[in-house]
C-alpha cells in the first residue's frame, strides 16, 4: 500500500536518524523531501503545503525529549501530523436511533459501490446488526443481479427490485421491507454514472428525502487520486456526505486520495476496501495508516 510514498519517506527519515543533532537547515531539507514525496503521491498541493508548514512549526519549536533522538522526534511529529491529516481517530458509523436505519451508498460507476454494499452488509452482520440490501440502481440491471447474488452468498435479505421500478418507489418501500425481513439497517445501493451530472445528483437528493439515511457514504476509487477528492467534494456539496469508503487500496494507489480527502472536503474516511473478496473491508484507522506509510 502506497509503496512509493513509503519508500521515499523512509529514505528521508533514515537519513535524519543518522544525525546526532539536527539543525533547522537539516529539518527544512528533510521536509522539502517529504513535500516532494507527498506531491508525487498525488496529494493535493495545498494540503501538502499546509502539512509541511505545520510539521515545520512543531519540529523547530519542539521541546527536547530525552528518550528520543532529534531524528526520531521529527518522525514522531510527522506521524502525528499524518494521523491528524487523515482525521485523527477512526469514525464509526452512526446507526443510533429507531431502526431501521438507512445507509446510502453513492459514487461513480466502477468505484466498487455494489461490491462494497456486500462487504458492508457482511461487516454489519458480523458486528451483530441485521442488514438488508436495497438495490436502487435500476439503470444497470446487472447491479441488481449482483446484489441478489451477494445477498444469497451472505444470507442477507435483498429487496426484489426490478429495472422497471423507479428508484424513488424502491426507496419508499425499503423501510417496510426492512421490517418484514426483520432487518435493522437498510443498505441502499444507488445508481452511479461515468461522470458527475445534475440528473444523478437530483435523484440522490430525492432518495435522501425519502430515506432520511443516517449515513450517506461515498464509495470512491483510491486509484483515481485527486479525481477521487474532487468527486468527494462534488457529492458532499450536493447531498452532504457523512463519510467516504476508499476502495482498491490493495492496488497501486499512490496515497493522494487517502491523504487529501479529509483535509479538502471535511469528510472522514470510514472504511477502506483492500481486495475484491467480501471480507476485504477494513475500518479506517488514521494512526495505523500513518504507521503503515512511515514503516
Ligand atoms: P460499481 O460500478 O461501483 O458498483 O462497482 P463494482 O462493485 O461492480 O466494482 C467494480 C470492480 O472493482 C469490480 O471488479 C470489483 O471486484 C472491484 N473492486 C471493488 N472494490 C475493490 C477493492 O477494494 N479492491 C480491488 N482490488 N477491487 C475492488
UniProtKB/TrEMBL annotation:
An annotated Gene Ontology molecular function: 7S RNA binding
Role, per record: Involved in targeting and insertion of nascent membrane proteins into the cytoplasmic membrane. Binds to the hydrophobic signal sequence of the ribosome-nascent chain (RNC) as it emerges from the ribosomes. The SRP-RNC complex is then targeted to the cytoplasmic membrane where it interacts with the SRP receptor FtsY.
GO CC annotation, single: signal recognition particle
Limits of the SRP54-type proteins GTP-binding domain: 268-281
Broad class of where this protein is predominantly found: cytoplasm
Reaction equation(s) it catalyzes: GTP + H2O = GDP + phosphate + H(+)
UniProt EC number: 3.6.5.4
Similarity comment: family membership: Belongs to the GTP-binding SRP family. SRP54 subfamily.
Protein name in UniProt: Signal recognition particle protein
Keywords assigned: Cytoplasm, GTP-binding, Hydrolase, Nucleotide-binding, Ribonucleoprotein, RNA-binding, Signal recognition particle
Notes concerning its domains: Composed of three domains: the N-terminal N domain, which is responsible for interactions with the ribosome, the central G domain, which binds GTP, and the C-terminal M domain, which binds the RNA and the signal sequence of the RNC.
GO biological process terms held by the UniProt record: SRP-dependent cotranslational protein targeting to membrane
Annotated compartments: Cytoplasm
Gene: ffh
Organism of origin: Desulfosoma caldarium
